[in-house]
Write a structure and sequence with these properties.
Blueprint: H1 3-23, H2 33-60, H3 67-78, H4 82-87, H5 90-98, H6 104-119
Length: about 120
Amino acid sequence: MPLRAKKELEVDESELLERVQMHCAKPELSKLAIVLAVIWPWLLLQGVLFQWDWYLRHTLRGEPLSDEDKAHLTRCVINISTPAWAALEPRKRAEWLSKELWEADNVRKWRDAQAKGKLE
């Protein structure tokens, strides 16, 4: 193989490696299967307690949604994780919250608009 082609190949390999490393997240301890197997009962309990608290506050007592509740429902509708939501600029979060996606009618309109945008 000519020397020039070999150098180009080495450059391409190093560039490819850099690109792959940029797009791959480092493994997190909390995502490992063995760790998840150990902590899943705690996660399950947290989920049950959250649902129970939500039921008590909003169904039985009829309390209005707090800003945190509205943010949680908005995150669920747009399918974004808590860390990703926290990483958003405050302006962008306010923009999402202004759409009031915790209301069923607004969610329906937003999803219809999303579907039309994808079809065009």
